[in-house]
């Protein structure tokens, strides 16, 4: 529980300077053939992040919040319940897609890497990697075609299952 609160406090600190925006369809939300370029233009590439000893999820979240501004209450709600308070708002879902792509959990084609999920997830919850691999594997088969919705539903499945099993 202490680790979860530290995570929430860290997110609060990082996002406090960002303004709140209403959901609006952005050009980058639309499918485009340059998706791979979009995901590799980060200041630090996914490959460099993978090689680093300490992957910093907070850096990725701050970077993605530049494009898809998310209210702290959304992230706190997601951390607590596994879902956003308003599931019709596309912006936080695209924020999740951005985080997953830049962290190497999702490919530009929205295919999910359960091993990478298990490597990063301990920064959110203290759960054994092998348990996360099992849960994430069950969550990967997604019917959604929208990349933002698909990413959100993957994480929602993962978080809701973790909450159900471990946060009794």
Shape: globular
Major beta sheet summary: none
Number of strands: 0
The unreliable regions are: 4-53
Please name the CATH topology. Recoverin, domain 1
Label the structural class.
mainly alpha
Strand content: under 5%
Rounded to an integer in angstroms, the radius of gyration calculated over CA atoms is 15 Å
- Label the CATH architecture: Orthogonal Bundle
N-to-C SSE series?
HHHHHHHHH
- The domain tally reads 1
Protein traits:
168 residues; mainly alpha
Would you write up a description of this structure?
Helix content is 59%, strand content 0%. The chain contains 9 helices and no strands. With 168 residues, the chain is mainly alpha-helical. Helix 8 packs across helix 9. It has a single domain (2-20, 33-166), classed as Recoverin, domain 1, CATH 1.10.238.20.
List the helices and strands and how they pair.
Elements lengths: L1 H14 L19 H6 L5 H6 L5 H11 L4 H10 L8 H14 L10 H7 L8 H11 L7 H20 L2
Short description:
Helix content is 59%, strand content 0%. The chain has helices at 2-15, 35-40, 46-51, 57-67, 72-81, 90-103, 114-120, 129-139, 147-166.
């Amino acid at each position: 529980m202490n680790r979860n609160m530290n995570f929430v406090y860290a997110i609060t600190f990082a996002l406090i300077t960002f303004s709140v925006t209403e959901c609006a369809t952005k050009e980058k939300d639309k499918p485009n053939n340059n998706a791979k370029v979009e995901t590799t233009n980060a200041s630090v590439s996914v490959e460099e992040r993978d090689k680093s000893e300490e992957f910093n999820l907070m850096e990725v979240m701050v970077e993605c919040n530049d494009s898809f501004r998310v209210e702290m209450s959304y992230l706190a709600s997601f951390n607590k319940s596994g879902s956003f308070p308003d599931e019709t708002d596309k912006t936080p879902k695209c924020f999740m897609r951005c985080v997953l792509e830049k962290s190497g959990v999702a490919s530009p084609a929205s295919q999910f890497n359960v091993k990478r999920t298990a490597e990063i997830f301990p920064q959110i919850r203290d759960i054994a990697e092998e348990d996360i691999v099992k849960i994430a594997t069950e969550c990967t088969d997604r019917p959604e075609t929208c990349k933002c919705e698909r990413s959100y539903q993957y994480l929602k499945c993962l978080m809701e299952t973790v909450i159900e099993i471990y946060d009794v």
